[in-house]
Amino acid sequence: MSSKPPRAVEIAIIGAGAVGAALAARLAEIGYAVLLVDARAKPCAEGRIVALSHASLAGWDLRGAAEAIGIRKVRVDAPEGSLWLRAEDLGLAELGACMALDALVEALRARAARSAQIRWPVRLVALRADEKGVVLRLQGPRGGMHEVHARLVVAADGAGAEVARMAGFRTRLGWLHNRFALAAFVRLSRPPFAAALERFGEDEALALLPWRDGEYALVWTLAPRRALLRLREDADAFCAHLAEAMGPENTAIFGAPRAVRARRGIPLALALSPPAVRGRVWLAGASAHHLHPVAAQGLNLGLRDARTIAEVLDEPWARRDPGARVVGETYAQRRVLDVAGTVAFTESLWLAHAHRSPCLRAVRALALGALRAFPDLRKSLLARLVHA
Ligand SMILES: Cc1cc2nc3c(=O)[nH]c(=O)nc-3n(C[C@H](O)[C@H](O)[C@H](O)COP(=O)(O)OP(=O)(O)OC[C@H]3O[C@@H](n4cnc5c(N)ncnc54)[C@H](O)[C@@H]3O)c2cc1C
Q1: Which one, out of 112, 157, 255, 263, has a CA that is 20 to 30 A from the CA of 137?
Q2: Which atom of ligand 1 is nearest to the CA of 299?
Q3: Which fold is adopted by the domain 8-45+100-173+270-349?
Q4: How far apart are the first and last CA of the chain?
Q5: Can you tell me the distance from the alpha carbon of 217 to that of 230, in angstroms, rounded to the nearest whole number?
Q6: Whose CA is nearest to atom 37 of ligand 1?
Q7: Same fold yes or no, 8-45+100-173+270-349 and 68-98+177-269+354-387
Q8: Taking the complete model, does pTM exceed 0.85, yes or no?
């Protein structure tokens, strides 16, 4: 892994997070010469637990890749009402599963290593276009520099979108949510069962994902001041505030918070780089779209970018020159609707709860009422989340 990178490859992937590593494995399997580099030797997911949809698990064969805890149903609860979304409504055993992001990335990196060339810790520090591709300047662990020529570069370098800036992507849309995700592991008075909770309050949202060792993984979206208070208070006070935020019905179903560990705060923002292609540099995953975690869509969306890239590059006409303009445009066009729809869904879900307006309250009550009253509507929402 510390040996010099090759001088030329067909496809260079920058960033071996889940998206880059999954993509590298798939592209190498379909016959491309792929180089995958990452600035970090080890994944750095800071204990994040992610919920992956049934489609992500099945499409990337992830169920056995790392430890996974299945989700059979999700309780969606708001002051205006609640409902259960169940796998059995779609004839499935599970809606998806929770996995530790760092274990998932390790497994995908190992998968990539079977057929792609991998190098880490190696950082991309500069790039420039030439007639037939892109010249990458890579910095090795001891500061040594190497140049690699690639016909196509996929930037899967995460929300920092450093590579997009280097490549001259000019549009970065979005805003700061002025909210923090407070992530932690909590122990409730009842052991986890295969159910998750999405609880929306006024100006806050919390998700509890079933995890192992009797714990749930918590992601609690809070305004900065309240996040700071919840991060600093002692465990008993934290559990009391969490119980209050969950509400009595949810503590009756899931149990009352008893212990908390590993609290950390993550600032939240929306950031998008449309279009996802500029010349021979394509963006995938969080470098193309960094979302609010409220609907657990970010990685699922990134894996769909990777799936589309692999599908486009598997077309016989793309093989001659994978970085050709027509190939890049095909990728960008095929991703527009899914990315726009997922961003709109995630943002509207968040915005509908971020304000105390009576109008929004009425809209929320109507939406929940409609989902409860019309099973087909509920099923189509669920199918979109699970099968996309
Ligand atoms: C609190 C929270 C909870 C979440 N929960 C969910 C969930 O339940 N479900 C879901 O689908 N999504 C969830 N997400 C989103 C999900 O975690 C991200 O979308 C996903 O991890 C992004 O993966 P990625 O591979 O695109 O980027 P990253 O995981 O950020 O990987 C980028 C990689 O690029 C490397 N890199 C960066 N710059 C360079 C460079 N110049 N040279 C070389 N390498 C470089 C980095 O070292 C890193 O390894 C959540 C996010 C948050 C914040």
Answers
A1: 112
A2: 11
A3: FAD/NAD(P)-binding domain (3.50.50)
A4: 35
A5: 16
A6: 157
A7: no
A8: yes
The domain limits of the chain are: 8-45+100-173+270-349, 68-98+177-269+354-387
pLDDT confidence of residue 94: 96
Residue ID of nearest Cα to ligand 1 atom 31: 17
Helix boundaries (H) for 123-201: 162-166
68-98+177-269+354-387 maps to CATH 3.30.9.10: yes
Distances (CA, A) of 182 to 79, 234, 237, 265: 21, 15, 15, 5
CA of 348 to the centre of ligand 1 (A): 22
Number of residues assigned to the chain: 388
The pLDDT value recorded for residue 283 is 98
Strand partners, 49: 100
Mean pLDDT, contiguous 10-residue spans, the chain (388 residues): 81 98 98 98 92 97 95 94 94 96 98 97 97 96 95 97 94 87 97 94 92 96 96 98 97 98 96 93 97 93 98 97 97 96 91 80 88 91 87
